[in-house]
Design brief:
Layout (H helix, E strand, L loop, with lengths): L19 E2 L4 E2 L2 E2 L6 E2 L1
Antiparallel strand pairs: 1-4, 2-3
Length: 40
């Protein structure tokens, strides 16, 4: 979870592996729908 920022760098990921992720926003208005699954 990232607070007070629009970006997050994850240094422990392996550049030779494939990762799948989704983004979901949470604030005082509630929770957004998740994005489509993205492949890195």
């Amino acid at each position: 979870m990232v607070h007070s920022s629009n970006e997050n760098y994850i240094k422990y990921m392996d550049k030779d592996l494939t990762y799948y992720f989704q983004i979901e926003s949470v604030n005082e208005n509630g929770v957004s729908e998740r994005t489509a699954v993205m492949k890195n």
